[in-house]
Structure to design on (906 residues):
């Protein structure tokens, strides 16, 4: 009745290489453009805010990129992460579906974000950087970079989206415990922040605004670089350890997924689990359904436009071709702060446009209901972001119950909800509401997109 | 520089038996007495509040007691838990000491408490119990029992010490997410609670009071039993999986501890890691130093009296021979809520009286400082309770630096601090104070001890 089925890999199976999906794309990605000239950006120009090694990864088309030994030596504290068969959830749903989940909440920061934080901190340290600036939504990324900074001896400055800063004081405390500095965004410490505050003194902030603030500071000082927790190719690359491990663990379970499911904000945890499988598919392997799940109140893939746009609100970042709701769009303050981003990773956008990814969206109440159902069966309380993936999994498993099909579902449980308990309290107390999709605001933001390409 | 050294056991090495230290004691424990008659209590009398299987374990002198298969099937979700060599901490301290830690924060409830919660829920379910009442201090035990109740389909009612209930709303949310009911203690739902409130309307509560409330309810209904998260023999027994696994993992590391360290409130996490080693010692094996670390504001082992006392404030529980500060003593509201107990496990008390255990106490500020030092080096933020163990470890490692000795230190990192971030915020903000040892109150409580034995 209560059998836990766990697939563990020993440390020898911690991947030695990341998987770079650029090597297998049927058509290459569109180039990244300079925010001022709108011409293809050069490595030298990117080096104002990023270390050289990361820029090389951003444009690399090598299929395998070696994981530096010092990065592996930290990752192995919690990696390979466990893969579970969710037998108790299957029983609770009375479904013939086989549900597997890869659990990334085992990292000391509680989510997959640590996978890239450790790598980015390593590369920055190796190139003599003293300080890294960044943004954070839910706080998972900021916590991970704070942890990584502490491991490699780097100063970390985090702009935290104001609505999350207020909702999640424990995340801030987590970052500060590791010695990082955490500032609510928009703030008066940057020109971008002050410009937003002048126009919207009550702004609850957004990832796009926080990115502007962090990038602005990084561009000002030679000893300071910027790190991004999602969206860019190198970040998604660093997350592929998830899927590479999962492939071996699914083999141990003698199973191959019919569908792979992850939630998407910027796209990195979804890419982490799905890209190694999509890569196999593009090289002629099994065809799988890759489901990217986003919040209905910030429906980038399902209602956005595939176009060139800025990564931030103040238009300091390069332009990427991606699904976007418009970089001036500020998503409403729902509880999955990690999914409140106007854009989507260019690689995921490209694959979605090519038909390799199946996006869908859910409202937050149905996601919390799914998360609690999962917790009661499996014992782990998911982060509100991950609840979106859980919702889709339960829906698919229920479809299998109706149809009698025994599909194999693999999903990424990208983080635990220990720092999100206020959201659960609000949900259980009936205080949480579904938030409207701000159709008019998105239309206005999309109308303002630069006319390129 | 950043090398993580981890010793993992596969599931085949999850222990099949618990280790019962009663089998190896040079003198047997003193008997448990009935609270009314003060005569040795019978199994039938204990059955009013505990299931039969647990009562049998309480008095067993068998060295090995089999772990039921359904319990192992749940435990293996996170067990065997990892053992780490704290190389980064050793480097930071510049010590020749070798520091190892067993990490129990990997359980879904975040601490070692789940080890016994799962076992107790199983035995209650097997005997037809519908509802379990309990108390919780920091919330680790209540969370664990809530989780276990959800796994085995039992109703859980938790009396949470009021000071922790207010300090830690996320712990309450955690329990409620799993469907448990959580009430601040002292409450008006029981006669014991109402009696305390009548005399001390502002009482911040204590584990002793919360136990009275939970026991009172359990004694009233046949379908309801009571579960205790520490102190009693069967609880300590269930925690020995920690030390049994650690013994195998230390062998993998080709090391044997010179000292084993754990924090002590009721004593279960310390017993979990130390008893298998103390048992070896009593059977003629290596002599080790077993250090039990308690808060200076609740110094049971270092300043208490070894005498018969009640487990609770209202004197509803049986009497045990133990180190105690007096069952009417209410410890001040420091942040390690799990260590705010007037008594100490009879087995630990007995071993301390026989000279097998070396107790010491620390104030909370020095413990938080140690916890932050540990977090920055090892990446894991300890629970405030575990910070007491960390403080002793760092002190011992620093002594090794002075003496040049390369001692091997093993400690139990009993839980993470994700639900204790308010305490870290207060500490980092300079708002935390050391709390005085309430010498007069303890003297009064000790003066009120029953004159037995």
């Amino acid at each position: 009745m209560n059998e836990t089925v766990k697939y563990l890999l020993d440390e020898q199976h911690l991947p030695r290489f990341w998987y770079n999906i650029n090597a297998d794309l049927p058509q290459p990605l569109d180039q990244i453009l300079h925010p001022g000239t709108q011409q293809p950006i050069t490595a030298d120009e990117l080096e104002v805010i990023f270390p050289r090694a990361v820029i090389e990864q951003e444009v690399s088309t090598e299929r395998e990129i070696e994981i530096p030994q010092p990065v592996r030596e930290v990752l192995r504290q919690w990696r390979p992460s466990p893969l579970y068969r969710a037998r108790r959830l299957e029983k609770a749903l009375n479904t013939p579906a086989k549900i597997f989940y890869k659990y990334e909440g085992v990292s000391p920061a509680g989510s997959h974000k640590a996978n890239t934080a450790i790598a980015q901190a390593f590369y920055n340290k190796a190139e003599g950087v003293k300080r890294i600036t960044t943004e954070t939504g839910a706080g998972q990324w900021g916590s991970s970079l704070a942890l990584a900074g502490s491991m490699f001896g780097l100063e970390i400055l985090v702009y935290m989206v104001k609505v999350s800063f207020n909702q999640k004081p424990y995340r801030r405390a987590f970052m500060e415990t590791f010695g990082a500095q955490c500032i609510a965004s928009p703030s008066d410490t940057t020109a971008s922040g002050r410009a937003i505050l002048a126009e919207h003194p009550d702004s609850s902030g957004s990832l796009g605004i926080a990115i502007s603030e962090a990038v602005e500071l990084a561009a000002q000082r030679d000893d300071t670089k910027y790190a991004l927790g999602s969206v860019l190719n190198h970040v998604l690359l660093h997350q592929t350890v998830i899927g590479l491990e999962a492939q071996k663990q699914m083999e141990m379970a003698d199973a191959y997924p019919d569908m792979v499911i992850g939630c998407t904000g910027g796209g990195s945890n979804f890419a982490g689990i799905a890209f190694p499988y999509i890569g196999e598919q593009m090289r002629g392997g099994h065809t799988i359904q890759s489901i990217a799940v986003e919040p209905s109140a910030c429906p980038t893939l399902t209602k956005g436009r595939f176009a060139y746009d800025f990564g931030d609100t103040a238009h300091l970042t390069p332009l990427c071709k991606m699904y976007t709701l418009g970089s001036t769009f500020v998503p409403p303050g729902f509880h999955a702060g990690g999914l409140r981003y106007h854009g989507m990773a260019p690689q995921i956008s490209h694959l979605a446009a090519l038909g390799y990814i199946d996006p869908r969206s859910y409202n937050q109440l149905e996601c919390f209901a799914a998360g609690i159902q999962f917790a009661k069966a499996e014992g782990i309380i998911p982060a509100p972001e991950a609840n979106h993936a859980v919702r889709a999994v339960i829906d698919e498993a229920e479809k299998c119950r109706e149809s009698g099909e025994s599909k194999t579902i693999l999903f990424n449980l990208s983080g635990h909800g220990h720092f999100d308990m206020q959201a659960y309290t609000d949900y259980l107390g009936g205080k949480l509401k579904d938030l409207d999709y701000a159709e008019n605001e998105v239309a206005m933001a999309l109308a303002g997109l630069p006319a390129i390409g």
